[in-house]
Design a protein that fits this description.
five-stranded mixed beta sheet, binds copper (II) ion, four-stranded antiparallel beta sheet, alpha+beta, 3 helices, Immunoglobulin-like
Amino acid sequence: MKTTEFFILLVALAVFSACSAIEPSHNMNPGGHTGEKNIRDAPVNPHDPEDKHTTDNHAAEHSFSEIERPQKIKDMMGSRGEQDMANPTLKFIEPTNNATVNGSTVKVRLELGGDLKGYKPMKDPQTQMGNHIHIILDNQPYEAHYNLDTGFELRNVADGKHTLRVFPSRPWHESYKNNGAFQMIRFTVKNGGAGRGASAFNLQSSERRIQRRGR
Ligand SMILES: [Cu+2]
């Protein structure tokens, strides 16, 4: 009996020390000079059964290190004045979270707000670059949206549940990470007829799939 008790004690000690060894990795990259956070820190909705993944599941699998910002980016930041200090926020006007959309065409309208310090999405015709909004439907590649004065449409969206993520970006595609910059909604498409086969939906071939429209 004595031996068994001793063995249990040993196992308990081993488990305890293994747990405390994992603990420090929770605080890798606590912000850095850009204010970036690990993607594990992204908000998870505890009330949604689809958000089963927790932020700690992958804690031990990845490690990140911070490197200095490339000189080219520093130069571009300098040439933009105050804009890099902006705190742009986005808001979905249409569709709203958990909306049901009738048909395979989904009209999207976003409102830009916050402390903009001159930040405005637009494409410079000379350089073909400029501030833009990143739009991500489900797991598709992102689409860049340069003109918030017009809404746009997602077309050929399959029936069923979808997730739409948006966030403001700099001309070199670096996102703004302040509170309210990133927005995510879910919506459901019904009676669209695009079918599950619309996995061919491709945001990169934007002109056919995302159509700008006037107000
Ligand atoms: Cu981009």
